[in-house]
Design goal:
Radius of gyration: 21 Å
Distance between the termini: 35 Å
Number of strands: 11
Helix content: 25-40%
Strand content: 15-25%
Strand order of the largest sheet: 3-2-1-9-10-11
Number of helices: 11
Structural class: alpha/beta
């Protein structure tokens, strides 16, 4: 399909490339944003280091893992432990405000809000809607931290989880401020379990609930997922012959078949398409679309700003 030789390092300066991207955005009739983990990382949503220790130092001490991602896969002995970890994880990454004054999503919206745009994202942290993006122009392909589903699953339904997750973190000793910030009062040692009555179960079959995150073939694609998929397909159909900018922000090679590979293919096939990739350490494109590509190896927030 494509050569395994990426575009050579461009002789253009950072300033040249950002100017080129700015012009491509201004000239575009439509913008298709493909967003991956690198975008939220640029906005401050890191799953390691100080942010991990602030909320999970007790889990690190007891179980030995050193990042939130590993903690999500740990084989806890009880559901009460499992949901103690996951409720903190969900709250700080889905409901709490951005962890640092880095309005990356707000800046992105300011750049595209007057454009005909659509967002395809593998992120599950809901940051696009929190920043004010039109929810009818969003397709979250991999799920949402804010949704539960049956672990089986016995049905193709999802369930909002904010109320129950709030109760779980409060039961562990945390306090939730009016803006959603999660804090632990001085002198309080957090519980590492939640009360049994807060463990969520499917309202239909009674089996335990789990996160609506695509990990395997049990992932639930509910009615909202399918409506969003159809809106995205229709957007592409309507703009195939127009000047379209495929803006790849922070996607890598974990799930390239969702954003990166389709963006490359459409840029190659669509006469008036441009591909732009902004990603620190992973900004590249195949030789076949080199003349139609803008690759910026830099922090996304810095480029948008």
């Amino acid at each position: 399909m494509y050569t395994k030789i990426w575009t050579k390092k461009s002789m253009k300066t950072y300033s040249d490339k950002t100017t080129q991207l700015k012009k491509a955005l201004a000239d575009a009739d439509a913008v298709v944003i493909g967003a991956g983990a690198g975008l939220s990382t640029s906005a401050g949503f890191v799953y390691t280091g100080e942010r991990f220790s602030r909320y999970f130092s007790d889990f690190e001490e007891n179980y030995g893992f050193r990042d939130m991602y590993s903690g999500g896969f740990y084989p806890y002995d009880t559901l009460e432990e499992y949901w103690a970890f996951w409720s903190r994880y969900i709250w700080i990454n889905r409901y709490a405000p951005a962890p640092a004054p880095k309005p990356v999503y707000d800046e992105l919206l300011a750049l595209v809000k007057e454009k005909d745009y659509f967002v395809l994202t593998t992120n599950v942290d809901h940051q696009f809607q929190k920043a004010g993006f039109d929810k009818h122009r969003l397709f979250y392909t991999q799920g949402d931290y804010g949704l539960f589903q049956c672990n089986e699953p016995c049905c193709q339904e999802t369930h909002d989880n904010e109320e129950i997750v709030r109760k779980m973190v409060v039961a562990q000793g945390y306090v939730i401020a009016s803006d959603g910030t999660l804090t632990l009062p001085e002198g309080v040692t957090p519980q590492m379990t939640v009360p049994t009555e807060l463990v969520p179960h499917c309202p239909h079959c009674g089996k335990p609930m789990t996160m609506n995150l695509r990990c395997d073939d049990t992932f639930v694609e509910d009615e909202g997922w399918h409506r969003a998929a159809e809106r995205y397909s229709e957007f592409l159909r309507r703009h195939r012959n127009l000047k379209t900018l495929f803006l790849d922000l922070g996607t890598g090679m974990n799930t390239p078949a969702i954003v990166k590979f389709p963006f490359w293919r459409m840029t190659n096939e669509w006469q008036n398409a441009t591909y732009a990739c902004v990603n620190l350490g992973e900004a590249y494109a195949p030789r076949e679309i080199e003349a139609k590509s803008i690759c910026i190896n830099a922090d996304i927030g810095s480029v948008l700003n």
